[in-house]
Amino acid sequence: MEYMVHLFNAGGAVMYPLIFFMLGSWTIMFERIRAYRKIQDEISTLKVCIQNVNRDWSQLVFKIHQEDVELLVFIDSIVESTYNLEGLENRLHDVVAYMDGRLKRGLHWLNMMVTMAPLLGLLGTVVGMIRSFAAVGSDIGAPTVITGGVSEALIATGTGLTVAIIALAFYSWCSAKVNDHIAALEQNLGSIIDIYNRSQMK
């Protein structure tokens, strides 16, 4: 622990925003894990509703109306007010946009951290090297100051890269989850359209 504190102090002022970015990326990751599990359960509930209605539109509307989860509450207002196929398709596009917003919530901050963390590390490197070169002409304590400046530069760079790599890994995982959930949702929404078509053909 003392060594970590020493590294933090040796890294200079840029360590404060870098640690903030590190904590922020972990917070976003844990929040997104919970959110994606909830959304996956909601999509699974929608899938069960679709599978258990025997392609009967009125049964589907009734099943969806009975479910008290966020996604199905949103869809409920759509299926109950459907008058034609074109209107249903347009409104179901709104469901995809709504879910896309839920899935990507907070990811722009994670993307910002991926970009800014290496730049902050580079800034710490520049500041540390400036300190080192400024001490070259000093008579007293120059080796210590130079070593401290180089140490600050390396620690800041390493921390910036570490934060960026971790945030990038989180961001890539979240992006994959967004694509998977959107694909599953679109498949279920396609089934809703099929059921509505069949009900109109009777």
Q: What would the keywords be for this entry?
A:
mainly alpha, rod-shaped, 7 helices, 86% helix, 202 residues
Describe the structure.
By secondary structure, this protein is mostly helical. It is 86% helix and 0% strand. Helix 5 (85-103) packs antiparallel against helix 7 (142-201). The longest helix is centred in the last third of the chain and has 60 residues, at 142-201. The N and C termini lie far apart (72 Å).
What is the mean pLDDT? 84
Rg (C-alpha, Å):
27 Å
Residues in β-strands, percent: under 5%
What is the global morphology?
A: rod-shaped
Biggest sheet record: none
Q: What portion of residues is helical?
A: over 70%
Number of strands: 0
Number of helices: 7
Structural class determined from secondary elements: mainly alpha
Report the uncertain regions: none
N- and C-termini, Cα separation: 72 Å
Summarize, please:
The chain is 86% helix and 0% strand. It is mainly α. The chain is rod-shaped, with a radius of gyration of 27 Å.
Topology (elements, then pairings):
Elements: H1 2-10, H2 15-51, H3 57-66, H4 70-80, H5 85-103, H6 107-134, H7 142-201
Helix pairs in contact: 2-6, 2-7, 4-5, 5-7, 6-7
